[in-house]
Amino acid sequence: MSRKRSPAQDEAIVEKTGEDSPAPNRRKFLLSAAAIGAGTAAATTEAVANATRGSWVEDDTPLKRRRGTDGRYSDYFDKRLDRLTDMGKKSQGAKWWEFDTYITPTESFFIRNEAPHVPRARCDSRVHPDHWKLKIEGNAVSRELTLTYNDLLKLPSRTIVATLECAGNARTLFWEQDTYKTGKNTAKKQVGGNSWGLGGIGQAEWTYVPLSVIMDMVGVKKNAKQALFWSGIDKDPKSKGPSYTGRGHPMDDIFARPDDIGLAFKMNGSDLGADHGAPVRMIVPGWCGAASIKWLTKLKFADHNFWAVLNSRKHVFKGPMYAPPTPEPGDEFLYVRPDEIHGPAAAWLKPKSLLTLPIVIEQDYKRPRDYPLKRGELPTVAAGLQTMKGFAWGPEYGIHKVEYRIDGGAWREARIVPPNLGKYTWVRFEFPWEAVRGQHVIETRATDNGGQVQPQTVPYNTGGFDFWAVPRFDVKVV
Question: Which of 212, 246, 411, 425 could be joined to 258 by an S-S link, Cβ 3.0–4.6 Å?
Fold first, then answer.
């Protein structure tokens, strides 16, 4: 995507701040805010109109024909999809059995949207860098502000390596776990949602402007209770209704780590792609992917709670073990009613582990179209000494150790392969196995630095969120 800047200008205006950099200078940011506000006020009427119009008509030629036939493409997504599993119009899963790098290449990074048709700059001016705007407002700020994309790039930024995971990752194992316990699948009709297998996870290097910078510019008050991260763009263009994509985030968490949460504009060293929220998205390390709102257009800091679809009806735990939270007087509701708060919203993710083997799917009724195994089929491993490899993550506290066992035997500790860069990152692990012909079961479990250990089972919830029980890998040795 072209921009009206030279590489030299890009380099000059983006100030990098590392982990050990001193705290940002408050006066500097206040002066920057004033300059940015003046620049925004000078925006042309035409630019403002284009920024709010949003058109999906570019030409009548299907995307597949425009791009040729040298790979798997879809009119619903922007990037080539060969390295992902086809899960439909809203999602594409990662092929975790092919994971072999510490950083997940963008081409292999999963996609999860709330609506079909990824917003693209060539189709919707609201996500074009020349017209994108971010409005920052609310009763818990001292001064409101509107930023352009170029304004954002002039602010201090930093990079962080962090996993991003859908709360529904491993949902598939709810069905399979039920079968292991009872011999039949009763969860099939209870748990709904995408069948990720273990492919709703990836790790990237994110470049972002920390929320600490934004909060300093607008003067966030101490009484701030929640921040609303809002898009309003993730919408089926054929729908006449509004886009409801956004959710509130507790200020307690933001105040605790304002340099870790921020507005991301690069992924793996390149500008964000359309499928991953271009031009700007939130990045909230350690929380469910739904908290990292894509195609961001508004931040709102307030002294009350925000209730939106994503944290009241969707991405919430519904089931006998989960009581819905009660709204408070003065709370703000966006396209939902108080009686539509069905359960607590997904937040911090639990530790998980996986082997780079496809799981056996027997009960899952939404198996991806291009999954490498037929229903009930086992992956094969050659007899003899094998090095089994996998990944583990525990983003709230970081990974302490990873264990494995074969055919229900004793748990043994796997070797963690460096690096281990902190709590937001996953680790790679490996262990030797003298594989003997026949059918075997391998299990892995992670323990994080907070003492959380992957359990054998987890409580049911209707959305199939936060399945973090020990995964089971059935294999056939030949």
Answer: 212
